[in-house]
């Protein structure tokens, strides 16, 4: 390799270390910069850049590293710290992606690089969905993404999803996503126009297999993806347990009794989601935000509870205990507990 041919990979190496350092620094702070042994990660990337530059795959190496930095930043931003194994996991995933892209260019669509560019662009965008989601949620709501968020997604329908996007996803985020997609496409188009040097097929297979093995063995350390997957699996497990409890109740395998003497009564339960008593005039807020409730209370037609507290901070956990016999004191799981609906059905109420 000539001296002038070293300029691009050497500059890339400098940028690699700079981007990695800034990601860790802004994500964790200077005091939490990992020990020197973690510098092996940017060194590995530097070697990849130098090697792929010699094969005229520098654009693919660049985009793979940008995805790595973006993913690592999203991980730190949500989980507040990073470890060597986390960086290794994301590195192996992104290197698996880049050598898979090279396989598309070199082996599968060698006479049609445009198709390879299209498929590779889609692959990059798929990899960016998770970090974009975590970053978007954390920045929008100033809180880390937890399993309750994924539970809410599982419980939502298409209409609610559209409403959520319209309400909370700003045009800035949509513009960022479109710019990201355009930049990815432009880089791959640039790559397909360059005459590439063939990587030995056996070596390419070896690299893909190696990074696939590393990625699979470290899948739990791909926290952005693993946390979402585990949350959804936990949701399905709990719903299966809930359905089993309901089946037992329906088949009278679980015995309970409920009685009531009054008849011809109608009960309406109103759940004020995200309602805060600190903003209710009924409870002393300086603005008259609840005029009808306040008037009823003054007439003695309303009984305000002044010392009632929710059992949790999130809607799903609150209602799981407010509407069942489970609570933070008896330790019962909501899917093993009788609900208000179960009691009303026992009393032959029609419920809606």
Q: What does it look like?
A:
The model has no long low-confidence stretch (mean pLDDT 83). The chain has 352 residues and is mostly helical. The chain contains 13 helices and no strands. It is elongated, with a radius of gyration of 28 Å. It has two domains: 3-231, no CATH class; 256-346, no CATH class. Helix 3 (58-79) packs parallel to helix 5 (113-141) and helix 3 packs antiparallel against helix 8 (171-192).
* Cα distance spanning the termini: 75 Å
Rg is 28 Å
Number of strands: 0
Q: Quaternary state, please?
A: single chain
Query: What share of residues is helical?
Result: 55-70%
Count of structural domains: 2
- Mean of pLDDT: 83
Task: Return the string of H and E elements.
Answer: HHHHHHHHHHHHH
- Strand fraction equals under 5%
How many helices in DSSP terms? 13
Low-confidence stretches: none
The biggest sheet, with number of strands, parallel, antiparallel or mixed sense and barrel status, is: none
Concise summary:
By secondary structure, the protein is an all-alpha fold. The chain has helices at residues 3-28, 40-54, 58-79, 84-108, 113-141, 147-155, 158-168, 171-192, 201-217, 223-250, 291-299, 315-322, 340-346.
Write the layout of secondary structure elements.
Elements: H1 3-28, H2 40-54, H3 58-79, H4 84-108, H5 113-141, H6 147-155, H7 158-168, H8 171-192, H9 201-217, H10 223-250, H11 291-299, H12 315-322, H13 340-346
Helix pairs in contact: 1-2, 1-3, 2-3, 3-4, 3-5, 3-8, 4-5, 4-9, 5-8, 6-10
């Amino acid at each position: 390799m000539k001296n002038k041919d070293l300029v691009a990979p050497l500059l890339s190496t400098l940028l690699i270390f700079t981007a990695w350092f800034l990601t860790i620094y802004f994500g964790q702070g200077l005091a939490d910069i990992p020990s020197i042994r973690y510098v092996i990660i940017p060194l590995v990337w530097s070697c990849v850049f130098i090697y792929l530059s010699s094969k005229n795959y520098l654009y693919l190496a660049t985009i793979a590293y940008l995805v790595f930095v973006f993913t690592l930043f999203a991980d730190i931003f949500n989980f507040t710290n990073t470890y060597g194994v986390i960086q290794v996991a994301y590195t192996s995933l992104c290197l698996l992606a880049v050598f898979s892209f090279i396989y598309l260019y070199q082996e599968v669509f060698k006479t049609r690089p445009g198709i390879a560019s299209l498929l590779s662009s889609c692959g990059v965008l798929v990899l960016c969905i998770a970090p974009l989601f975590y970053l978007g949620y954390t920045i929008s709501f100033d809180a880390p993404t937890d399993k309750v968020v994924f539970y809410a997604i599982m419980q939502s329908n298409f209409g609610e999803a559209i409403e959520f996007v319209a309400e909370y996803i700003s045009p800035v985020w949509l513009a960022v996503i479109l710019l990201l997609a355009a930049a990815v496409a432009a880089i791959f188009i640039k790559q397909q126009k360059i005459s590439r040097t063939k990587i030995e097929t056996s070596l390419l297979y070896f690299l893909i297999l190696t990074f696939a093995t590393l990625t699979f063995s470290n899948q739990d350390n791909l926290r952005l993806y693993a946390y979402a997957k585990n949350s959804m699996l936990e949701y399905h497990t709990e719903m299966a347990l809930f359905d089993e409890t309901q089946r037992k109740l329906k088949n009278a395998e679980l015995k309970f009794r409920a009685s009531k003497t009054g008849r011809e009564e109608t009960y309406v339960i109103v759940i004020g989601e995200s309602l805060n008593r600190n903003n209710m005039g009924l409870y002393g807020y300086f603005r008259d935000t609840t005029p009808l409730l306040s008037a009823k209370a003054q007439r003695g037609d309303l009984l305000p509870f002044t010392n009632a507290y929710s059992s949790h901070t999130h809607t799903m956990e609150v209602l799981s205990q407010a509407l069942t016999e489970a609570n933070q004191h008896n330790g019962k799981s909501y899917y093993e507990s009788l609900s208000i609906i179960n009691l009303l059905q026992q009393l032959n109420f029609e419920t809606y």
